Amino acid sequence: MTLLISARAVSKRFRQPRRFPGFLGALKSLVTAEYTEVEAVRDVSFDIAEGEAVGYLGPNGAGKSTMIKMMTGILVPSAGELSVLGRTPHQHRMANARDIGVVFGQRSQLWWDLPVRDSFDLHRRIYDIPAARYADNLAQFSELLDLTSFLDRAVRQLSLGQRMRAEMVMALLHDPKVLFLDEPTIGLDVVAKDAVRKFLAKINRERGVTIILTTHDLQDIESICPRLIMVDQAKLIFDGALKDLRASMGTRRRLTLEFATDPGRLELETARLSSDEGLLKHYQIEREDVSLVDVLAEVGRDRALKDIVLEEPNIEEVIRTFYQGRNAAAVSA
Amino acid sequence: MSAYFAFAKSAVMTQLAYRNEVWANMFGKVVQVFARVAIWLAIYAGATSIDGISLQQMITYALLGGIVTGAIRYETIISMIGRALQTGDVAVWLLKPVSFPLYIITSELGRAAYRLVVLVIPTVAAVALVYGMLPPASLFYGAMFLAYLALAYAIIALISTLFGLVSFWLLTSFSLEWLMQALLNLLSGQFIPFWFFPKTFGDIAAHLPFAWIVYYPAAVWLGRMEQTETLIYFGIGCGWALLLGLGVAWLWRRASTRVIVQGG
Amino acid sequence: MLRQLRLIPILLQMNLRAQMEYRGAFLIDRIAMIITYASSLAVIWLLVARLDTLADWNWGELALLYSFHTLGYAIGASFSFTQMRDLEEQVRLGTFDALLTRPMSPWVYLVFARFNIGYVSHISLALVVMTWALLTIPIDWSIGWVAYFLASLLSAALVTGSIMTLLGAAALAWTRSNHLYSLYFGFWELSRYPLNLFPSVIQGILLTVVPLGFMAAVPVAVLVGKPVPLLGELAPIAALLAGPALLGLTALFWRYATSRYQGAGG
């Protein structure tokens, strides 16, 4: 697979003027000028191959948007090397722009007072899309995301979900090789989120469009991106497959056993008893090599077991545990 | 009551947060006041008095005009009210135990007070040092000037609020900001004192509320009216303020009702 | 580059259609503008009615000065003012970034997608007043005179457009710059009057640091045969060159500001 995006020790620093607190501080700021340096991205390296779908995750201020801005040519890195499609983005802004699509979650690029179609048409002209290709893409995407009902309506009359769907289509009309999305599902209702996720996954699988997505919504990652890059406080803390993250955190599956009659405090070897509520007992299966069958074998046949519920850890838990583990390590280090 | 004071204070704090703005504004103001005075100096070139007004009096008049109009930005009041009404944001205010128009007015007066102290008075003082400014004609006129100044601020705030509310029905506050400018240009006396106006025009202008914005405060400082006259005209000015206040209350009632009914 | 020019008519068209969605308000705004500019002119008229001349300029000449100033300003500002003034907010909200991710010049998109046709009010009023003034003042009509008139008007428009764009670029480079507009408009008021009305310090400023003297005061003085303070014989050529010179400076600064924006992050 060809390497589409390559980042080597990329860093980005900003200078911000200092604000002093309080009324006197405000007066002070009238006459002095002090700056603090803020590091938004520190020493981040990764490679993204063609056709990948990567989630870029992290708390607010972790440097997600900054990284996307550097990859799309908006910002220049303070240090390190960044290459997108074989070019340095900010040095070849126009050429880079032709091959990428960008969707900003909260900032629309559609013309507010005009029909959606008009914004699309302008897009066609700006990117020099051949007429046949444009018609083809428009027809396909409109069908996939159900745009035909409002293609001719003014953007200001659309719901947020409709607008986001239109944005997404517009970003793909020119067949970009890479699609960057900055918080695309923010503020959308459940139905719209689902439509967007399915669409992106489909585009990635069927058309091979490389997708890079920043998000707070872990469900986005689950549905679209098999690979996950996590950043925290400007640094890269995880880069790998989502399932590896799960695995590295231990499976810690939750098992709930429901009994017809209380067999008393039932401690097991194959699973740890986390809470005993009489008829309902909650266990955590902490070892990977232990299966449900093993646990049930240990429980035995004559305990009047009525029902079993087995839960995989969800992505929120996985990530939260990961952060906690890191912070704990940081504290103890 | 304290809520409104808090609004004013927070407006001032926001202003202070932007250092370059403050310096640029001050510089801009200095230029403008300087220029006004320069224009009159050129007009007077040589003559000691025109229509019985001396150069010194004219310079003082120009500087006083700067004190009133330099501090308050009426267009902010109009646009803020206009925008809140158009977008329906005002609905949020209808839920609070504070009056929206009063909030807007006190915020802008807060900013105006700040600008007055930090920008306008230093500027006027600086230019006054260069060109000379006459003191008030007497203690009485000095005190009355302060009263007229407060009245001027009240009237300008009320008129702009009125315009802001009207913009709700016109669907444009932009046009009203500019119309207010036009009315101030011609009728407030800020560029030309009424004593230079053609007779009929001057008579009409002298009785419209705009005249209390620049002309009367300045005329009072210069002692151009008899003491009784000064008090009477203050009363008339207060009458205008009252009328405007009633107009604002009435329009606000109608506008907010419509917002509630239409949902903004 | 030339390919970009083909996008301009489309942007203008879309912009016009978008603005016409608010036809009623648009019309009212235009009328209000005309009334206000007329009121400023009326103030000058009131002064002249009382004083006969202002710095040796009679009413006809002052009307020409006013209308020339307004026309040059309106033409230049339609390509710059509202677009550049809103740039500060675009930077703050991050919507300017979208312009950098497209294969087109951010300046072209910014200027023409938000082209301000509201200046039609200024232009209409200015043309009416200008026509009247030109018929009133004794003018030595010749090809040369007319050519100079048009050329210096273009230069004046360039002066306006360039300065506005410089201020907008400052928003890119230094984030907050809208306060500079209040400085600009302070001097803008002064530039509506003959230069010899002011003390030499102000004259100097209006001819150098804040070259708004070239918006009207200098070229119109040349056109009606009045002496220009400080510049004297150089006035005619200075008025013609001011616009293009500023344009060059602005192009360079815009390039610098964009690269600073990308370095500093906005």
How would you portray this structure in words?
The complex is a heterotrimer of chains A (333), B (264) and C (266). Chain A is of the alpha/beta class and 333 residues long. Chain A contains 11 helices and 13 strands. In chain A, strands 5-6-7-3-8-9 form a 6-stranded mixed β-sheet, with helices on both faces. Chain A has a 4-stranded antiparallel β-sheet with strand order 11-12-10-13, with no helix packed on it. Chain B has one domain. In chain B, strands 1-2 form a two-stranded antiparallel ribbon. Chain C is mostly helical and 266 residues long. Chain C is globular, with a radius of gyration of 19 Å. Chain C has 13 helices and no strands. Chains in contact: A-B, A-C, B-C. Chains B and C meet through helix 2 and helix 8 of B and helix 2 and helix 10 of C.
Top keywords for this entry?
heterotrimer; A: 333 residues; alpha/beta; six-stranded mixed β-sheet; four-stranded antiparallel β-sheet; 11 helices; globular; C: 266 residues; mainly alpha; 13 helices; 0% strand
Q: What profile does the largest beta sheet of chain B have? A: 2 strands, antiparallel
Sheet with the most strands: spatial strand order of chain A: 5-6-7-3-8-9
**What is the gyration radius of chain B calculated from CA atoms?**
19 Å
Helix tally of chain A?
A: 11
Mean pLDDT of chain B: 85
Overall structural class of chain A, as computed from helix and strand content, comes to alpha/beta
Given helix and strand content, the structural type of chain B is mainly alpha
Q: Order of strands in the sheet with the most strands of chain B?
A: 1-2
Total number of distinct structural domains of chain B: 1
Radius of gyration of chain A, CA atoms, in whole angstroms: 25 Å
Helix and strand run of chain B: HHEEHHHHHHHHH
Please tell me what the overall shape of chain B is.
globular
As residue ranges, the low-confidence spans of chain A are none
Report the oligomer.
heterotrimer
- Tell me, what's the shape of chain A? globular
User: Mean pLDDT across all residues of chain A, rounded?
Assistant: 85
